[in-house]
Amino acid sequence: MRVLFFLFTSILLVGCSSGISVSLPEKFEDTPEFSTGYLTGSLSTTTDGPSSGEGIVTTLYIRQTGDDDIITLIYDNSDYDFNTGFLKGQIFAVPLPAGDYELFCIGFKGDNGNKTIHSKSNDNLGLTFTIRSGNVTYIGQFVTSSLIAKSKLWNQEYPSGYGVVTYNDANERDKALFFDQYPELLGINFNHQKLAERNSQVLSAKTN
Prior knowledge:
Elements: E1 2-5, E2 8-9, E3 12-13, E4 20-24, E5 36-46, E6 51-52, E7 56-64, E8 70-75, E9 82-83, E10 87-97, E11 99-111, E12 116-120, E13 127-131, E14 136-150, E15 157-168, H1 171-181, E16 190-192, E17 200-206
Parallel strand pairs: 5-14, 14-16
Antiparallel strand pairs: 1-4, 2-3, 4-8, 5-10, 6-14, 7-8, 7-11, 9-10, 11-12, 11-13, 14-15, 15-17
């Protein structure tokens, strides 16, 4: 596997920004441009409600149907394309050979100096999507947070050690960001493929 950091190389994207890194199988390097499509979506963290997104790293694990080679997308929360004050994150944009794919696993970790969260789902999430040549496939937004608890004794908030990844849709925002960053792709089809119900919790964990 080769780690690719979000740089722009002619029309073949390998990413968007410094906060996300992508690892692709080396065999994908030889994929002809005419049979390549683009995977996009967003990874973000939230401080909305009783939660904190600080210090959290989220990883998506993807593979082509019938293939054991793994694609990883890692967001380390160090940079952002959007920031509302309680939600910040980045879009990803990855060129992939046309075909059927599966988001089979999600992991996250975080450490605020007091408690550590480290969790990974089973390898059978089964969230499938299709990449079509010359098309953009949008798979949604993945929001990671660490819930905050409140001490009854001291009346202070503190990390509870419980973390969650929630899936939802930010199609309009992410579509605008995608074409703003890659204006040369304006005019190609932008297909939204829903992987789960809106606001579905796709992973949760309690710290050790």
